[in-house]
Design goal:
Blueprint: H1 4-33, H2 52-74, H3 85-113, H4 118-121, H5 129-162, H6 170-177, H7 181-213, H8 217-230, H9 238-255, H10 259-277, H11 279-282
Helix pairs in contact: 1-2, 1-8, 3-7, 5-9, 5-10, 7-8, 7-10, 8-9, 9-10
Length: about 280
């Protein structure tokens, strides 16, 4: 029998897909009735290079994530932390390679097919180092206690609803229970360096402006944040991750610099990894 908390996650994914589909349809009808509407030009995130074909690409990527989440929801195979070290390493590296290919393809199309200056598109030179650090630290300091509070409330609600606390993310479980130092180092690199860069380029750098270009920034921020939360395939973290993703998107829109949400993401994941290594968590 499937875990009901995983089925809840799948239902949230269904809700997200409905919002995405009906929302884009509604905005398309509004724009057709009034072609002068330029909602996508509001804010600091540049959307002009993104085209309708990007909606199709976004749909294909989201459909792939949906199949993975659906498989996880109906799978009864527990996390095997005793799996051979080589198998775990291979799985993590495989995920990193596939994400690298995906991000590389997106950047290649933007830079070499559409002839867009990616540095300008992502605002990578928009903030000098002192301002970048200051923005990132302030935004992170504001976001962290909110996410912690949401996490505590959501965990309590799920525990009350299902009688037991839903499972942690698979990598979190492996990180806590594995005795292999190379595996711990690989997961640390993936969480603190690779994931912040790759996920922010995909979700904030590509998904968000694509949806914003064909709707407006509030709708795009909510839908992309929901997608970010559900594709991590963990019910216990879905609401905290939604709040976290919204903070990343707001920071990106306020600054126009993708490095800010990347830095915030890295700070958050690093904090999580440090807590996993702490004696309190391991005791």
């Amino acid at each position: 029998m499937s875990d009901p908390s995983k089925l809840l996650l799948l239902d949230i994914f269904h809700l997200t897909l409905l919002m995405l589909g009906f929302g884009l349809l509604a905005y398309a009808l509004i724009r057709r009735s009034n072609p002068l509407i330029r909602w996508h030009e509001h804010g600091n995130v540049w959307t002009d290079p993104y085209q309708k074909i990007d909606l199709l690409i976004l749909g294909i990527i989201v459909a792939s994530y949906y199949m993975l989440v659906r498989f996880s929801a109906y799978s009864e195979t527990p996390v095997d932390t005793d799996l051979a070290a080589g198998g775990i390493v291979a799985a993590i590296i495989s995920q990193m390679v596939s994400m690298t290919v995906l991000i590389g393809g997106i950047v290649f199309v933007l830079a070499y097919v559409r002839r867009v200056d990616v540095v300008e598109l992502f605002g990578l030179a928009r903030l000098r180092a002192p301002k970048l650090i200051l923005w990132s630290l302030i935004a992170f300091a504001i976001t962290l206690p909110i996410v912690i509070g949401v996490n505590l409330g959501w965990s309590s609600l799920l525990e009350y609803a299902f009688g037991t606390e839903p499972e942690q993310q698979e990598l979190v479980t492996i990180m806590r229970e594995s005795t292999s130092l190379p595996i711990k180092l690989l997961i640390t690199f993936s969480a603190c360096v690779f994931a912040p860069i790759s996920e922010e380029v995909l979700f904030r750098g590509y998904f968000y402006p694509t949806l914003k270009r064909h709707s407006e920034r509030f709708f795009a921020a909510v839908v992309v944040s929901m997608l970010f939360a559900v594709v991590h395939s963990n019910t216990m973290s879905v609401l905290p991750l939604f709040v976290l993703a919204m903070s990343f998107t707001i920071a990106y829109e306020l600054t126009g610099c993708l490095l800010v949400p990347i830095a915030m993401h890295a700070l958050f994941n690093t904090t999580q990894v440090m807590l996993m290594f702490s004696p309190v968590q391991n005791g």
